[in-house]
């Protein structure tokens, strides 16, 4: 059975109804025809418009007139898909390659531009760091707190803060985002700092994974595991810097001298460097703050007879770390009587002694994300401080559980 061609009048009627009403059902009801009939007419109308049989009365959405010609059947108006504006490279990307579609004579008909995440522009990163300081005034040189113990040092580990982690309570049992993280972690750090002895010296020690992800893609740096992320990368980087600065400022109210070290983790290999450089610039003229911006993944520090070390913990087993400590710093090893190494990464508390060195893995203060909630992983949440005397004694250990 041959299908009758659709008349120009019915085609225009279907097209105009599709433009007037928000749904095809409403348009069909307005014309008094079944919805299937309307859809068929609209399809044929579009085909007729492409072939130039509807003149300029029905320029399809997303199309443009490509040619108007005169012939035996009268005026024919042909349409083609409307060309978009110029191609804009996505933010943070660089051109990876260009492919061209050629005609028989070798002329370019079309091009495909492939992009990839590019190297981060140093000027752009510097602008992110500059904006991180907008919420702060220049740090004033405060008078040292009274009654500071000259021969003691307190360590404040910043364990796997994962700033930028997103969790939904219906999946994980607790909501968590940038705002919640900043509030909970800084209030907890304020409690542990105020409860710690007023030693003359202190260390604000980032144990890695300060940020949950390391760039515009919410994935881990090396294994490329997908992560639930809250906020764009510049916003997360800015918040991380602000949180560490707030912690340092609280420490300055309790201790005379503050040493800062930010170690990289498997979630923030590159961002840890940016945070460390930002803190170094911010406190460059501060007499009581020293920022250690070494690119090493290990941190070693001797205070009298106490020899301390730290590493994130993703690349070395805890039992192997004492030998690394002895090899890297034999003189400090020989001049110390108490040796201690801090690690993070696992979010679990674990303590072992190997070769006279106490190695500790510590809890994180962050909520669990969907991945860890769906798997077997469970752990408590804590913030810590530990205070040592130069004679080799550990005199205080504070732990607040969230």
From TrEMBL:
SUPFAM superfamilies: Metallo-dependent phosphatases. InterPro entries: Metallo-depent_PP-like. This is Calcineurin-like phosphoesterase.
